[in-house]
Amino acid sequence: MAEAFQRLTDRDKLTRQPERVRVKTLKLRSTLDKALRTYNVPENRLEEMAILNGMQLNEQVNAGSLIKVVEK
Fold first, then answer.
1. Which residues of the chain have pLDDT under 50?
2. DSSP state of 37
3. pLDDT in the model for residue 5
4. Residue 1: per-residue pLDDT
5. Is the C-alpha dihedral spanning 5, 7, 13, 16 positive or negative?
6. What is the largest CA-CA distance in the chain?
7. Chain segment 37-51, per-residue pLDDT in tens
8. Torsional sign, CA 34, 36, 38, 43
9. What phi, psi does 25 have (nearest 5°)?
10. Extended strands (E) in 1-72
């Protein structure tokens, strides 16, 4: 079975770095949506980050709260 695989030579795939979950402390009270945007979370990943944090995007989060953000 292993003989059926070809050698990987695509430079993009060989140099790819994993994404990591980072914990961020909020400085201001806001909604989760605004807090995630503060940390430059792309629009298409907001819902994913809300699920990761076990919250809804419209929920209020207090200053000093910890949230998880995925970064490269």
1. none
2. H
3. 85
4. 64
5. positive
6. 56
7. 999 999 999 999 999
8. negative
9. -100, 125
10. 20-25, 30-31, 60-61, 66-71
Residue 29, sorted as left (phi over 0), alpha (psi -120 to 50) or beta, turns out to be beta
6 token code pair: 């070809």
Q: Which residue has the tokens 């990761």?
A: 52
List of residues 6+ apart from 52 with CB closer than 8 A: 21, 68, 70
Q: pLDDT at position 19, please?
A: 94
Closest by alpha carbon to 38, among 72, 63, 11, 1?
Answer: 63
Identity of the amino acid at 49: M
25, 7, 36: which is closest to 62 by C-alpha? 25
Integer-rounded Cα Rg, in Å, for the chain is: 17
Residues in the chain: 72
